[in-house]
Amino acid sequence: MLKHPPVVKETDLPLLVDLYELAMAQAYWSEGMNENGVFSLFFRTLPENRNFVLACGQQHVAHIIESLAFTDEHIKRLESLGRFQPRFLDWLREFRFSGSVHAIAEGTPVFPQEPLLEVEGPVAEVQLLESLVMNYVHLESVLASKAVRLIFAAQGRPVVDFGMRRTHGMDAAHRGVRAYRFAGLAGTSNVLAGLDFNMPVYGTMAHSFVQACTGEMEAFRTYARLYPGTTLLVDTYDTRSAVARIIDWLQEEPEVRIGGIRLDSGDLASDAAECRRMLDEAGLGDVKIMASGGLDEYKIATLVSDNAPIDGFGVGTAIGASNDEPALELAFKLTEYADLPRMKNSPGKQSFPGRKQVYRRLDPNGRLAQDVVAGRDEVFDGEPLLKPVMKRGLIIEGAIPTLDSQVDDAKRALDALPSQFRSLEPAYENPVVISDFLRALQRDTLAKVRG
Amino acid sequence: MLKHPPVVKETDLPLLVDLYELAMAQAYWSEGMNENGVFSLFFRTLPENRNFVLACGQQHVAHIIESLAFTDEHIKRLESLGRFQPRFLDWLREFRFSGSVHAIAEGTPVFPQEPLLEVEGPVAEVQLLESLVMNYVHLESVLASKAVRLIFAAQGRPVVDFGMRRTHGMDAAHRGVRAYRFAGLAGTSNVLAGLDFNMPVYGTMAHSFVQACTGEMEAFRTYARLYPGTTLLVDTYDTRSAVARIIDWLQEEPEVRIGGIRLDSGDLASDAAECRRMLDEAGLGDVKIMASGGLDEYKIATLVSDNAPIDGFGVGTAIGASNDEPALELAFKLTEYADLPRMKNSPGKQSFPGRKQVYRRLDPNGRLAQDVVAGRDEVFDGEPLLKPVMKRGLIIEGAIPTLDSQVDDAKRALDALPSQFRSLEPAYENPVVISDFLRALQRDTLAKVRG
């Protein structure tokens, strides 16, 4: 037997914490530092090949925050580390988050320096949430921000997630699919995630089935009988001869219904063109051509701009691991404590102090014109993006919409992005303006910490 | 309430399957194709900046395989997809893996085309394991293969995992730490994973604690009192003035014990040199200097070769997300069915058919000289790497060593790697030889499938 389960148990999430958070919590506790802290979650910068982050997870993480509690077993395990005082462990045993959370909508495109989440509460309580909140939001935001690029590249042709084998672990395989919904993917091969996150589940055959059968045609006939309208994988031995044989068969047996063929290797553009020509000449114009095998947004964009007759794309590695940018510079920083603004002055890492709001302004055509990052109590034109999600430790009734409705909102927010941000090329443009108040607050706070 | 748990439940792992596996299983079942299939797990190729894969997970996954079973609830959910026949769902309800597994030791360096795992059993049973096995082994192998490069770069100075906030989800944050043990990391910041995988847990303070205190020195004094021998984070406002103040304080209060300081930003080499000089001049030669902040193997190698006086490294993004190569070309392929060799002929994806063994030969100095990938029944000099792990669906008693003992074995296997494979530069060398038998088998099988 394994001494631990193969996946993290929900009940063990409180221990999924970086040790320094517990060390700091004990220090706050021992010093009687129990005033409110405000922590802000934001992306510091973006890599050149991301024009925005599609932020996901920042509302859902409230469910974890709300239920986080240490069990006696957890306390015993922490005791074994020999660093915690019995009375602090008692405090930990009683811990329930008692503060408030503001967050932007799931699936909102955000830019550097814009808070996606602000947590306020007794500083030790909020400190304990740091790594869990970051890990939770980072995963989905990274995967959604990659996946949406494939959607842009595909220009309306459906993109389906085949990435489970390449995602980093099972939590990522599962929750990634929720991220892909915000990005606009059409479906997933992943059964559990499709069922849990209400996304169509797709999948027909791998090469192994073709190989195990006595011949390729036997495999195809079996599938056509079991799954009318199925998609046949045609590249196991030789794509064009497979398609030629399928055509002969369908002409001999016109009652057989095949929905499509899938190309998974080789020169997709020329194979697709040739297969399309063969199928069309045989009067099989309704048999679709799907493509997969090492696709990313650039390859899809080329296929689309070359008018390759491909009706849909299956993508694995690129979206499963966000292979070009698997990590983004997400930060969770103390911006206020005991009603005073706080910031650090580390080179390249200065942030803006104080609790904040983001106002998103649209132009008359409904396109994003400017975001203003302001102090929480400032008022600007535009829609305030940060909305209350938790109060006194509890999720506010009705504050978190259903997933389907969140996905609809995300689509609208994506549609409002001007074309330069929807391009695969760097936008070299930043729609974010920092308010004068925040700039002055940063200047004053900096002067104080330097003094 | 969330309709699903925030992390995948162990009991839901059977549904973490790609739909095509279930579709194929039903097809095998419906066609009475219940002969044994052999599936082989291997890396197709390696990116230029990986000289080998440190394979992890291929033995541990047997625990998942052994206990995999569909519940009535799972069957009901599958039924809702409308693609499965009631009698196939009955078969699925009775499913327990009944086959055998061969695997190489956890933490073995492997090269392209070397099987890490071979699963044999009724073909439908093995097919159902595909994505789960791949996901499980891919995660740890990707993270360990990156982490070991940092160990090579650090040349004996300890490297500690700070990556939880950047790993893709919680399963990766947790199981990644087991991978880091095989790679040789000295510790982790992650409490749950450290406790579960018996790795020292490290962590003292973040900038937030310094910011929340009235002044930096208040933060330092609190920590020195609560945690004698602690490491102080000195870059919140200005590294060198912080160190100057620490020196004044320690000279005034010589009874205070500080173990080290940590630099987390700025020019680590010059700050470390200057801090070391200041500390040494003050007679504080035993105060160590730790560095963190955007480190990867190349930065560490430069710091080490420049003799930067840094005693240990904390690494986040690089190892948490394996940021340069977050995905590797892992494949799980049918190589035999009904005692006949099987292979596909897709461009660039031809594999070797048949069940296999890998013989690792060492030179007289105990260094890896050559690996022979051979048929399972061939005999060559060297150590056979694939060993039986499961038989008739059950883990063989004693076949999977304890984690600590596996880690010791992994260290020996890494130590046996010649220097070109331990370099950060591409080795441009492949120690793998394919046996004549396998080459002939490939040729014959290819002729058959083409014919």
Automatic annotation (TrEMBL), chains A, B:
Post-translational modification: Transiently phosphorylated on a His residue during the reaction cycle. Phosphorylation strongly increases the affinity for substrates and increases the rate of nicotinate D-ribonucleotide production. Dephosphorylation regenerates the low-affinity form of the enzyme, leading to product release.
GO MF, any single term: glycosyltransferase activity
Reaction(s) this enzyme catalyzes, per UniProt: 5-phospho-alpha-D-ribose 1-diphosphate + nicotinate + ATP + H2O = nicotinate beta-D-ribonucleotide + ADP + phosphate + diphosphate
EC number: 6.3.4.21
Signal peptide: none
Enzyme class, broadest EC rank: ligase
Origin superkingdom: Bacteria
Domain Nicotinate phosphoribosyltransferase N-terminal, residue spans: 15-137
Record key words, sorted: Glycosyltransferase, Ligase, Phosphoprotein, Pyridine nucleotide biosynthesis, Transferase
Domain Nicotinate/nicotinamide phosphoribosyltransferase: from-to ranges: 159-335
Recorded metabolic or biological pathway in which this protein acts: Cofactor biosynthesis; NAD(+) biosynthesis; nicotinate D-ribonucleotide from nicotinate: step 1/1
Database matches in CDD domains: NAPRTase_A
NCBIfam families to which the protein is assigned, alphabetical: NAPRTase_put, PRK09243.1-3, PRK12484.1
Function, as annotated: Catalyzes the first step in the biosynthesis of NAD from nicotinic acid, the ATP-dependent synthesis of beta-nicotinate D-ribonucleotide from nicotinate and 5-phospho-D-ribose 1-phosphate.
Annotated family: Belongs to the NAPRTase family.
Identification of the protein by name: Nicotinate phosphoribosyltransferase
Organism: Marinobacter salarius
